[in-house]
Write a structure and sequence with these properties.
It is a single chain. This protein is of the alpha+beta class and 171 residues long. It folds into 2 domains: 3-129, Ribosomal protein L10, N-terminal RNA-binding domain (Alpha-Beta Plaits); 130-171. Helix content is 56%, strand content 16%. It has a 5-stranded antiparallel β-sheet with strand order 2-3-1-4-5. A hairpin with a 2-residue loop joins strand 4 (106-112) and strand 5.
């Protein structure tokens, strides 16, 4: 492959990575064509982009990115695929679901919510991680709860007072 062709591929990989906020590195080597097609189909349904890349080209693309991905360099060995998503735990759920019937994919590392997760043992943590939007929703719900209780108490208290006054007026 010519050097300028490699430069174009590196730029393309970098641009693809920059489009998404979450990055997973997984090993899908050893899957046959049917399993690979099933994995790609599942990725498409879950809005996860799956890209198979050479480690050296991926490393150069990660080095060219604005984010410091240097912690991921140590896992760039063997066969590597990139799983990209804008929802932090979708690829982890996909890997867990697909691994129930297949021995691969295996999580190598991930960059999720501006944190690094290295190793297959981090899969369960990534499955349970909440996105920023989910956390914001939880906080808003917690903040609204006391206000709802006050409004509810005022409304029920008003009905009680109204009932007492009505009873007294009827007497």
């Amino acid at each position: 492959m010519k050097k300028e062709d490699k430069g174009l591929i590196i730029d393309q990989i970098k641009n693809t990575i920059d489009e998404y906020s979450h990055l997973y590195l997984a090993d899908i080597g050893g899957l046959d064509s049917v399993q690979t097609s099933d994995l790609r189909r599942l990725c498409y349904k879950k809005d996860v982009k799956l890209v198979v890349v050479k480690n050296t080209l991926l490393r150069k693309a990660l080095e060219a990115s604005e984010v410091d991905y240097s912690q991921l360099f140590e896992v760039l060995k063997g066969e590597t695929s990139i799983m990209l998503s804008n929802n932090g735990n979708d690829p982890a759920k996909l890997i867990k679901e697909f691994s129930k019937t297949n021995e691969k994919p295996v999580l190598k590392a991930a960059y999720v919510e501006e944190s690094f997760y290295i190793g297959a043992n981090q899969l369960e943590v990534l499955v349970n991680i909440k996105s920023k939007n989910e956390l914001i929703g939880d906080i808003i719900g917690l903040l609204q709860s006391p206000a709802k209780n006050v409004v509810s108490a005022l409304q029920s208290g008003g009905n009680t007072i109204h009932g007492v006054l009505k009873t007294l007026a009827e007497r």
